[in-house]
Design brief:
This is Oidioi.mRNA.OKI2018_I69.XSR.g14739.t1.cds. There is one protein chain. With about 130 residues, this protein is of the alpha/beta class. The chain has one domain (about 20-120): Nucleic acid-binding proteins (OB fold (Dihydrolipoamide Acetyltransferase, E2P)), CATH 2.40.50.140. It is built from four helices and six strands, in the order H-H-E-E-E-E-E-E-H-H. A five-stranded mixed barrel has the order 2-3-4-6-5. A hairpin with a 2-residue loop joins strand 2 (about 35-45) and strand 3. The longest helix has 16 residues, at about 105-120. The radius of gyration is 14 Å and the shape is globular.
């Protein structure tokens, strides 16, 4: 419970939301919702903004906490969680760097295809 005590109300609200898998092709459908995406860092614009790719398209990711992107480097594979702000932008709440040897461009593309399929059959996948 001590970990939860250090979170802001926005972070607590986010943690309680279902976070659907998205990709650049279906992000517009999820504007305003909590989302998760596996991607590759293409460019670090500044402390609060990075550009990522899901091997199909690019997405701008922003954050309010400059420490969130502190170690995000070009060509890193990351899983981002946050709020879909537009068809090309996510407000990030969480970033996890993936250093597994199995994570590569093909893995990211496969996750992109899986995200599209999960979106197509969301009633079954997400038990809605």
């Amino acid at each position: 419970m001590e970990v939860m005590a250090g979170l802001t109300q926005e972070e607590l609200d986010f943690k309680e939301q279902p976070r659907k898998w998205v990709c650049s092709e279906n992000l517009a459908k999820h504007i305003g919702n909590a989302v998760t995406i596996l991607c590759k860092v293409m460019e670090r614009v500044d402390e609060n903004k990075i550009i990522v790719s899901d091997m199909v398209g690019q997405i701008t990711c922003t954050c309010n906490n400059e420490e969130l992107f502190l170690f995000a480097e070009k060509d890193d594979y990351v899983q981002l969680e946050g709020w879909a702000l537009s068809e090309t932008e996510i407000q990030c709440c969480s970033l996890e760097e993936l250093k597994d040897e199995a994570t590569n461009d093909e893995t990211v593309l496969l996750r992109t295809k899986a995200a599209l399929m999960m979106d197509q059959y969301s009633a079954v996948v997400y038990a809605q």
